[in-house]
Structures are given as structure tokens and as C-alpha cells.
């Protein structure tokens, strides 16, 4: 038995498929954006820690007795 779909049903199905595709692409984009932001925060934190170590390494010999 063959189903007969009118023009309106075909247009609705194409629109629905397009909306599902757009939603999937948006979801993937948001996931990738979240990963990128997390990586950027990790790098920023690493740079702050390295700077703090550098400051400590520079000031430590000056604060030692006799230094």
C-alpha cells in the first residue's frame, strides 16, 4: 500500500528535516565551543602558575639569610 503525501506534507517534512539538521549542528558547535573555552582556561591557569613560580624563584635567593 502506497501512502499519498500532498505538497504540504512534503514541505513540512523537508522543513522538519532541516530544523533537525540545524539543531544537530548547533549542538555540536556548542560542544566544541565548550571544549575550546575549557582548553583556553587551562592554558591561562598554567601561565598564571608559571608566572608565580618565576616570581618565587626570583625572590627566593634574595630572601634567604645572607642574600
Brief digest:
The protein is an all-alpha fold. The protein contains one helix and no strands.
Structural notes for this entry:
With 67 residues, the protein is an all-alpha fold. Helices cover 85% and strands 0% of the residues. It contains 1 helix and no strands. The chain has one helix at residues 7-63. It is rod-shaped. The model has no long low-confidence stretch (mean pLDDT 90).
Describe the secondary-structure layout.
Blueprint: H1 7-63
Shape: rod-shaped
Q: Average the pLDDT over all residues and give the rounded result.
A: 90
As a percent range, the share of strand residues is: under 5%
Oligomeric composition of the shown chains: single chain
Task: Identify the notable features of this structure and list them briefly.
67 residues, mainly alpha, rod-shaped
Amino acid at each position: 500500500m502506497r501512502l499519498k503525501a500532498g505538497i504540504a506534507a512534503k514541505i513540512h517534512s523537508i522543513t522538519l528535516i532541516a530544523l533537525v539538521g540545524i539543531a544537530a549542528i548547533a549542538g555540536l558547535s556548542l560542544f566544541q565551543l565548550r571544549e575550546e573555552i575549557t582548553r583556553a582556561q587551562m592554558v591561562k591557569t598554567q601561565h598564571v602558575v608559571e608566572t608565580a613560580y618565576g616570581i618565587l624563584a626570583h625572590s627566593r635567593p634574595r630572601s634567604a639569610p645572607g642574600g
